[in-house]
Amino acid sequence: MPSSVTAALRSPRAGALLLLVAAVLGLVAANSPLGPSLGELQHTYLSVPGTAISLSVGHWISDGLLAVFFFVVAIELRHELTAGELNSPSKAMRPAIAAIGGVIVPIAVFLLVAAGSGLENGWPIPTATDIAFALGILAVFGRGLPARLRVFLLALAILDDIIAILIIAVFFTSDPSLGLIAAAAAGTVVFALLSRLLGGRARVLVGVLMVVVALVTWGLVVLSGVHATIAGVALGLAMASRPADRTRHALEPFSNGVVLPLFAFSAALVVIPSVPLNELSPAFWGIVLALPVGKIVGIMLGGWLGARFVRAGGTTLGGMELLAAGALGGIGFTVSLLMNELAYADVTEVADEGTLAVLVGSGISMVIAAVVVSRLARSYRRREAITGA
Q1: Total-model pTM
Q2: Neighbour tally for 375: CB within 10 Å
Q3: Topology of domain 3-172+227-388, per CATH?
Q4: For tag attachment on the chain, is the N or C end more exposed, with fewer CB atoms within 10 Å?
Q5: Does the pLDDT value for residue 104 go beyond 70?
Q6: A single Pfam family, by name (predicted)?
């Protein structure tokens, strides 16, 4: 791949654009004459010879390829926890409180709307923030903004994803096999030890062994009953920092240019329900309201509480900056689509409505975020022009 292309794919703007285009194409394709064929392909099962692993094409994307995305995110998280903006309790506290608010309030909004419908198990769907998309919108519309907003958003989104990952592990794990989980943990330890040998003469052999160990660990997690993306998180957190940074740099173009667009396309392969608006399920309306409204209220409230009660260290934002962070936090997309698949796996019609709701709610959040971030950026640019004149 040409270096100019890989450099472009590392840009948050390019990643956000590809995600949006892929989601739109998936939605259009599902409602075109190609829809039935693509749906059949998506549900075709592919097995790994000699193993018990057998997944549909859709699950190979959401359980397999998406683990690469979580691996890259986990490496970034590890960096922030050890050498970045989250390397002390005081630095992490304010975005942590905002992230908690941005999880609790959307859950409350969803449950308020869906109460009594029998669809309350969709409560995790509006809790997630799509890091790639949120940072992409910030990069596109936020020229001239101070770095502290991006730092706060990155910390908030990473902490948000930790919560989402824990929700997946606790609520979407069926009949876990403790033996296989222990074997996967051992594989993670071996992977971590090998990563510390990458600087030696046998680095090619070590690199090959790491790939093999990572694949085996992923397979063990798949068979254990735990959601497979947890393998990506564990391996990313366990990897030694220097090779981890290099690996993240190498994988970013693949993650942004292949993994996320493929997942967005696959997740958006939904036939638009031919029902009136008043017949859409409470789950649909709960998600549509919880993503933009719940996230904005929760993150702004959490940010205000953090600024009020955490005096030392950390990043402080003003009201408009918190509004921008809240709107950006409402872009659930990737992880929210994954949560929707898991929450309504047995109710296809509701799952389809949930996917549409995630797209609509995230779209509303994107519009709000674009407007707020643009106005905020113009304000900062004018201020800088005046002070610099």
Answers
A1: 0.81
A2: 13
A3: Na+/H+ antiporter like fold (1.20.1530)
A4: C
A5: yes
A6: Na_H_antiport_1
